[in-house]
From TrEMBL:
It comes from Massilia terrae. This is DUF305 domain-containing protein. Gene3D superfamilies: 1.20.1260.10. The lineage of its organism: Bacteria, Pseudomonadati, Pseudomonadota, Betaproteobacteria, Burkholderiales. Residues 54-129 form the DUF305 domain. It holds the Pfam family DUF305. It comes from the Bacteria.
């Protein structure tokens, strides 16, 4: 399975920054597709989960949609079929729009939850009350 995966994918398995996909005509389509899927899989497996289904779904769908974009870019590099090229371009546009919506949702979710959490768990508040 490691064959066809980019070195960047194999390196830094636990890093927060996912490998970047580059669609290049220097690589055959199957290699590009395998790289895109490997990056997508790693992104989905390392998505920050918090046990809330809404959050976890969105967190995993961002890399899933990015994988679709990357695969569409790979076919654009290799296909001459205009119907498939149009389909791929539509996938890129739509999936990127959906990623933007999901990232905005995640920002709102994180902002709402970061405001609530510190008030309940701030150690300095507990320490200041202990001295009174």
């Amino acid at each position: 399975m490691a064959q066809g995966q980019p070195a960047a994918h194999q390196h830094g398995q636990g890093s927060a920054t996912p490998a970047t996909f580059v669609a290049s005509s220097a690589k055959p389509y199957d290699q590009l597709a395998n790289e895109a899927m490997a990056i997508m899989d790693r992104g989905m497996r390392s998505a920050p989960m918090d046990g809330v289904p809404d959050h976890d779904f969105v967190a995993m769908m961002v890399p899933h949609h990015q994988g679709a974009i990357d695969m569409a870019k790979a076919i654009l590099v290799h296909s001459k079929d205009q119907e498939l090229r149009n389909l791929a371009q539509g996938i890129i546009t739509e999936q990127q729009n959906e990623i933007n919506v999901m990232r905005a949702w995640l920002r709102r979710y994180q902002a709402a939850h970061s405001r609530a959490a510190p008030a309940a768990q701030t150690p300095t508040d507990k320490d200041s009350h202990a001295h009174h």
